[in-house]
Structures are given as C-alpha cells and as structure tokens.
Write a structure and sequence with these properties.
Elements (H helix, E strand, L loop, with lengths): L8 E2 L2 E9 L3 E9 L5 E9 L7 H16 L8 E7 L2 E6 L4 E3 H7 L4 H20 L20 E4 L4 E3 L5 H12 L11 H5 L5 H17 L9 H10 L10 H10 L11 H12 L6 H21 L2
Antiparallel strand pairs: 1-2, 2-3, 3-4, 4-6, 5-6, 7-8, 8-9
Helix pairs in contact: 3-6, 3-9, 6-8, 8-9
C-alpha cells in the first residue's frame, strides 16, 4: 500500500502533515474544503500502510468508528465518521489544536494545581467510558487500557481530551507481535494488564496514577533499566516513596497505584471526587492551562526558528 505525503489528497481532504503514528495507525492533520471557500482542519486516522489489508485491523478500525459514534463527552476526542477513499479506510476525528501532555511536561514541570486539573478532566472522561451503556441500557464494559501522557491532548483554549479509546487493545497487541514487548506505554500499564488478567475500570486508575505521579515528581514510579524490568516492577507494584508531596496527594496516588484492584477507588466517580477535593486548595482554571499550552507552543516555535 502506498505511503501518504503532505499536500496529497485523500477523498475530499488535503493532507497537511502527519501528527503522529503508533503501533497500527497514523494520524494526519488535513483540511476539508466546502462551498463558498469553506475550510476546516480535521484529523484523519488510518492504518499504517502495511496493515491496511489486514482484516483484523480493519475490523478494529470499524469498531472504533462504531464506538466513537456512540460516545460523546467534552473530554474525549470525538470520532465523526468512517470513510473510504482511494482504497483506504480512515476515521475523521476532532483536530485538537495544541499539544499532548507528554510534550508539554517534557518542556516544563506543571504546577500541582494544573496537574490536578488535567488529572480530574481525564478522570471525568474515564468515568464516562466506564458508565457507557448500549441502547438497551447494558454496560459496554469499556476500559481504555492506555491512559498515558501521549494520549492526553491539551488545546490552546485549555481543553483536556483523552484520545485513542477505541482500538487501544489492538494497538498493544500489534506492538507485542512485532517487538516481543509492549512498546511505549508499558510503564503506565496496571499489574493485571501486565499479567494478562481480566481488566475493568480500576486498571485505568493505575495509568492515571502513574501519569499524575510523573507530573508531580518528574519521574514514573516503576521505571527500570529495561522494558522487561519496568514491567516486573509494575507487576510487583511496590508503593513508591513520593518524597516532597503533600499528604493528600500522596494518599491519592498510592491508592491509584495499589497492586490489587480492590484496594483502589471502587469506581472512577470516587476518584473524580477525591481529585476535586485535592484541587480545592490548589485553584487552576482552563485559562491557566491554555496559557501554559500557548507558552509551550511559542517556545517550540522559537526553538525551531533558531535552529540552523
């Protein structure tokens, strides 16, 4: 299958640049054109060239489209439709102008107030996913499986949106098949996920706990010298010391990082409430987050223009 390139057309869209790629898919920034000079930036998600003829991966992409059509929440990247052009299936998603949490945190340590704001917004998205039901009111049993800074998008207007909630499991399986170990996000997996046992929403609490710990301390709690050592440390889940954190933050993180799911919060709604309580003495607003995102983007642009 052919590689795509900037300025190339894909159906009614003109590709601008590739935003990123994972184990099975790539995402492109594109521009849609309409009558009377209408233009709109969108994100297009499609399988990597070598996977576009895989029936299993195509089913996963179609399932993400069906799931995305059902889910609507302000903290989720919205899936708008599934299309076919030039023999390529792709999803049209919201384009979130800004950056992801991984890139933002790499440039500067967030204040505890902003870190808690981001964590609460992500927890609200996870609570929505956990409570999602089908048309007959039966729980869908959704588990994100990849709550990590690279999947948390931050907009220039201060929005927080969780992405990759549709085919994350398929992405991880593709990574295992290719490299023997899960790449990139293994440090945020729960002990039960590393062990291959059944998951529920409490597994996502663990990933959010690792993310919040990293934001507040500058380090992930279970990193080892190699991916396999990190996964063994995750499986053991020895409580980290968390020096320098206030007691309420330490207690919240340690509960999220408990080895046994029963020792974590019973549901995401309870975690949302605890995050809100921690935020009461640490005020931050979406406007504060927006300023931080714009500052990081300006610094990145300045660094790029200063490069030879």
């Amino acid at each position: 299958m052919r590689e795509l390139a900037p300025q190339q057309s894909l159906g009614p869209y003109r590709l601008l640049r590739r935003l990123g790629a994972g184990g099975m898919a790539e995402v492109w920034l594109a521009k849609a054109h309409g009558a009377s000079g209408f233009e709109r930036k969108v994100a297009l998600k499609l399988l990597l060239p070598e996977l576009r003829e895989s029936s299993r991966m195509l089913r996963a992409l179609h399932e993400e489209a069906r799931l995305g059509a059902r889910l609507q929440h302000r903290n989720l990247v919205q899936v708008h439709d599934l299309a076919l052009a030039d023999g390529i299936y792709f999803l049209r998603l919201d384009y979130v102008e800004g950056t992801d949490l991984r890139a933002l945190a790499a440039r500067a340590r967030l204040s505890p107030a902003l870190a808690l704001l981001v964590a609460e917004e992500v927890a609200l998205a996870l609570d929505y996913l956990q409570r999602a039901c089908d048309d007959d009111g039966r729980p869908l049993g959704l588990v994100h499986r990849d709550v990590s800074p690279g999947n948390i998008l931050l907009s220039v207007s201060g929005e927080v949106k969780l992405s990759d909630y549709g085919i994350t499991k398929a992405t991880m399986l593709a990574d295992v098949t290719r490299g023997g170990v899960v790449k990139g996000t293994y440090a945020y997996m729960s002990p039960e996920q590393v062990s291959g046992t059944p998951l529920d929403g409490r597994s996502d609490q663990f990933g959010l706990g690792v993310t919040l710990c990293e934001l507040l301390t500058g380090a992930r709690p279970f990193d080892g010298a190699s991916p396999l050592e990190t996964m063994e440390r995750v499986r053991a889940a020895e409580p980290p010391s968390l020096p320098g954190l206030d007691d309420d933050l330490r207690a919240l993180i340690l509960r999220c990082l408990a080895r046994e799911p029963d020792a974590r919060f019973p549901e995401l709604a309870a975690l949302c409430g605890e995050l809100a309580a921690c935020r009461r003495g640490r005020p931050a607003s979406p406007l504060d987050l927006a300023r931080e995102v714009r500052r990081a983007l300006a610094a990145k642009e300045h660094a790029g223009s200063a490069s030879p």
